Amino acid sequence: MTAAAPPPGAPAALRPRAAHDLPARLARSAAATGQGHHLRTDEVPGWLAERARAHRFAVRRTPLDRLDGWSFTPDGGDLVHHSGRFFSVRGLAATVDEGPFTRWQQPVIHQPEVGILGILAKEFDGVLHFLMQAKMEPGNPNLLQLSPTVQATRSNYQRVHQGARVRYLEHFAAPARGGRVLADSLQSEHGSWFYRKSNRNMLVETTAEVPADEDFRWLTLGQIGELLRLDHVVNMDARTVLACLPMAAPGPEALHTDTELLSWFTAERARHDVDVRLVPLDGVEGWRRGADGIGRPDGRYFRVTGVTVEAGNREVTGWDQPLLEPCGTGVAAFLYRRFGGVPHLLAHAKVEAGYLDTIELAPTVQCTPGNWDPVRADERPPFLDAVLDADRRGAAHYAAEHSEEGGRFLQARIRYLFVAADEEAAPLEPPPSYRWVSVDQLNSLTAHGHYVNVQARTLLACLTTGAVRL
Amino acid sequence: MTAAAPPPGAPAALRPRAAHDLPARLARSAAATGQGHHLRTDEVPGWLAERARAHRFAVRRTPLDRLDGWSFTPDGGDLVHHSGRFFSVRGLAATVDEGPFTRWQQPVIHQPEVGILGILAKEFDGVLHFLMQAKMEPGNPNLLQLSPTVQATRSNYQRVHQGARVRYLEHFAAPARGGRVLADSLQSEHGSWFYRKSNRNMLVETTAEVPADEDFRWLTLGQIGELLRLDHVVNMDARTVLACLPMAAPGPEALHTDTELLSWFTAERARHDVDVRLVPLDGVEGWRRGADGIGRPDGRYFRVTGVTVEAGNREVTGWDQPLLEPCGTGVAAFLYRRFGGVPHLLAHAKVEAGYLDTIELAPTVQCTPGNWDPVRADERPPFLDAVLDADRRGAAHYAAEHSEEGGRFLQARIRYLFVAADEEAAPLEPPPSYRWVSVDQLNSLTAHGHYVNVQARTLLACLTTGAVRL
Predict the structure, then answer these.
(1) Where does the dTDP-4-dehydro-6-deoxy-alpha-D-glucopyranose 2,3-dehydratase domain lie (chains A, B) (predicted)?
(2) pLDDT for the residue numbered A384
(3) Distances in whole angstroms, Cα of residue A1 to Cα of each of A5, B423, B426
(4) In chain B, which stretches have pLDDT less than 50?
């Protein structure tokens, strides 16, 4: 027996399984708008612009076969880095059991390692603030956006003990020492563009002194919510982490019990036949490699393209890489209704070929409308036209354009919306594979992985930060 | 707007998200021992023996190349059924980052479809009873065991609307009508023998009249618990479903908060490098196909063998199939301690090649001791010798031998144990990849898939049914 151990049978330090004060503390931070401890919200865009000027950033297109460090493998033509690290572009062959497209092939990003997306929290003046980073990513429409405290690949964070090169990483790599984990789950990324990619989404509260850095600022949740009402300011990695904040239920009632909701989800996941295989990139049907990258003659979906990056505030000062460039702006929208005073979202159990397991909960509408132009009216995604119409009429409760992960996607713009619905637009008994879910229910599912997809998490972040109140 | 819809803004029927009366009702059923509404516990073995006599059952070994309906594919030698249904035996190549074995190949069972394991519940005399089936499976040591109400493959249950051939399936295929779902989650099966297999584990309560069938009996949880103290009476499918009963926490305290537990699990899942691919069966290194099946010259792990089955109470009267036959009896044991009066189990975040995602929580010890005989002492599984020693001394709090899924495994015997530990045997700060988890915490994780592995669920079923009280 070690000296430090309690004697057998002695009471050990038990703790409540749940931190009951946390929802109220998060709500207080979400209510703190206009002004944080360190700066006003309206000072943030100027600070971001100043950080953009302080660093040399340049991104220019480069043909795939001239990307430094990247090449097509001789057997299969996959696009890989010579180090074997980062990611590769491979082929994917999918067969699904529903929808107008049941068999297809496509390029896909393959990156089996799990990265960390972490936001550090700390109380100032009794209000939780979150340490946000001004970070450049080559695919962002405006290059520099507000990002998590840490975005680290596993190769980054496993290097931490030989001297951290990613600022503040120590708070996430070993949070047991001096920090308190508020949320930590593996969340999926885009199922149409990534093959089974997930990242750790972490929120850690610290009471330690945190040294300042000129690329970082502490903001309240309410301030981040204000910034989420602007286009292209809060990056995708920040949004997905913020969605996982455990806001909990003050009034724990909903249309369906949690068990009914999980049972419906389980049935949806179990009922689909989805067969997905990685295949050689050079044999992918319907796609061609040309001077401007790998794309489709019909111009749909996306193309794989290359960029050369020059930057001054990164671990390295310049690099080449492929990026996936979507064709057209996407739309991701939740229809919502109040039932008995409780706001509910109409979630869609959506099949995407890149998911680890068949389906995840997506917004009511999630697609790139242009891809559906040639499709018969009765096969278009349900609720799409209602959402586009509400947006055209300016009738959406919330509408903003955000961009997806700028380290992998080039100018991937999605218009995010909340649209109020009534019984006619979205009935209490929705079509199969749709279900009304309370905001609290959707939020609490983010404690676990592979329930709530990345687009739904962006919309959820609008709710956890108070950018949107339903 | 449809006629049945509530007017916009009218209060809809909200319900509490959780059924707060359920844990007490389950506890009442677990306390009901000796005698249920329909029969005494000590009458069950006799009833099972009578059902075994009532049906013609015969299982004999048949060489793999003479199994009716099965053949080796010409390209790769996978063992498949001519219908393309049921399952196939393929090859698996694994590379993992830890342990004495970091690269290996093996045969594996591939069955991508999700089946239903469902137990129907109903109150008699104010106590929940569970409808258990006397069911034959060819791999069971004693052929007939107590099974869930329904064990159905997807091909079974999707046929339900053309006239159900699986008794009581309608309660699970459309539980919304007339039933109340108590639990419904996708749970994994054996990660060493199956490639990413999972089944729906369902518990449904009904208030409807349920017609009797001579192969079925209603038992209380307490009665099932009494039968779990006997060897080879309650089958694996029943055990895994019973583990998912939401017993909840009367005293919601534990050594670690739920968030800390999930964070540790997330870190364990994220840190491993596991590469697993399906490969052709005929090229699997270290395995040979001979007259008695596919096995290893060193006699370790398992062999793939064939059987011919004759039965009278199945959908078909006879069939041939391959079965996986483990070499030697396994052991699965939880070390347990009370901290502050709350029982905790020492869970192991265990890598298995067949898991959908890297790791799941396993018992403290889970292995086939014989496979580890040639391994250096310092590389043997932690806690294995302590468990074997306690078992030899008769010092285990619980020890019984159960068999694994008799439809896929032949005589797959595992000795299941609970062994009390102290600080010396199992310290408060256990080795990496081990963690103390309260019984309630482990039980509540079964609401979601891929947290608690199938061996841990057998041990958990001993706790939810009251077979074991810690």
Answers:
(1) 42-245, 259-463
(2) 96
(3) 7, 6, 10
(4) 1-7, 10, 160-164
Cβ–Cβ gap B6/A260 under 8 Å: no
- Out of B11, B184, B255, the one facing A14 most closely (by C-beta) is B255
Q: Give me the percent of chain A exceeding a pLDDT of 90.
A: 81
Partners of A179 in beta bridges: A206
Q: From the list A175, A258, A267, which residue is nearest B17 (CB)?
A: A258
Mean pLDDT (whole number) for A147-170: 76
| Interchain pair A266, B185: CB under 8 A | yes
| Domain ranges, ordered by start, for chain A | 21-470
DSSP state of B57: E
Q: Tell me phi and psi for residue A171, to 5 degrees.
A: -70, -25
Best residue of B26, B200, B266 to probe chain A, by most A CBs closer than 10 Å: B266
Do B404 and B236 touch, CB atoms closer than 8 A?
Answer: yes
- For A283, the token pair is 């044999």
Class of residue B208 by CB neighbours under 10 A (exposed 0-12, middle 13-18, buried 19+): exposed
Over the stretch A38-52, which tens digit does the pLDDT of each residue have? 999 999 999 999 999
Name the pLDDT band for A19 (thresholds 50, 70, 90). confident
